[in-house]
From TrEMBL:
Transmembrane segments: none annotated. Pfam families: Ank_2. SMART domains: ANK. InterPro entries: Ankyrin_rpt (IPR002110), Ankyrin_rpt-contain_sf (IPR036770). This is Uncharacterized protein. SUPFAM superfamilies: Ankyrin repeat. It comes from the Eukaryota. Keywords: ANK repeat, Repeat.
């Protein structure tokens, strides 16, 4: 070897080993690529570097579909389905919180992605995770009212007005006043008495000042009331 040429012996194995290193929240390189929808990067990682699409990591041990659906990476998701059909079972796998990728998709605001997963990939939209979130309540977090209406009216999902992690409280916690107002009108909700007057406390707890002002300015809440859940 010419003395002026660098010695790359061992560099490639070291680089490949580095790709298996996890971020601080447990995500490996393939999961980071999934999060941002980087198709070329994923192709390189899987085909040239031997990275495994079955990996899970991050909050609650999510897979490539959890992370890509959460960020609405529709093209990326279709690429995996078409190129690696053996991994489509991951669409039907839960994370540690019992959430499916379809739940994450409903939080993404991307209606076309959600309908594709329901109609073409036959994802189950009837389940809830450990904290009581469903496809409907995830749609409430997204702020996409058209998607919420679609899930309730076309796919006949429970609007989740009452019970654990209800639609109105999730809408308030997410600062989505327009979602709350649609639910109020559609299901004749008494906002002031809902959950024993707890909605302003949800707005305050989740730092939603706009929603808090809306509640106090438009409904008869006692500003000096005690949190009913204390």
């Amino acid at each position: 070897m010419n003395a002026s040429q660098p010695d790359y012996k061992g560099v490639v194995p070291l680089a490949l080993a580095y790709l298996q290193v996890k971020t601080s929240d447990g995500r490996q390189a393939v999961l980071v690529a999934a999060e941002v929808g980087a198709i070329d990067v994923l192709e390189y990682l899987v085909k040239d570097c031997g990275c495994d699409l079955n990996r899970v990591g991050g909050t609650n041990n999510m897979n490539v579909f959890h992370l890509s659906t959460l960020n609405g990476q529709f093209s990326f998701i279709k690429y995996i389905i078409n190129t690696y059909p053996q991994h489509t079972y991951l669409l039907h796998s839960t994370n540690d919180n019992d959430a499916l990728p379809i739940h994450a998709a409903c939080a993404s605001r991307v209606t076309q992605l959600v309908t594709f997963l329901i109609d073409k990939m036959k994802c189950d939209i009837t389940t809830e995770d450990k904290i009581g979130y469903t496809c409907v309540t995830r749609a409430c977090t997204s702020g996409n009212l058209d998607l919420l209406k679609l899930l309730i009216k076309q796919y006949n999902l429970n609007p989740r007005i009452f019970g654990k992690s209800s639609s109105p409280q999730v809408a308030v916690a997410s600062g989505n006043v327009h979602i709350l107002e649609w639910l109020r009108q559609e299901y004749h909700i008494n906002v002031a008495s809902f959950k024993n007057g707890a909605l302003p406390f949800y707005a305050a707890h989740f730092n939603s000042l706009y929603c808090l002002k809306h509640l106090l300015n438009n409904y008869s809440f006692d500003i000096n009331a005690i949190n009913p859940f204390d």
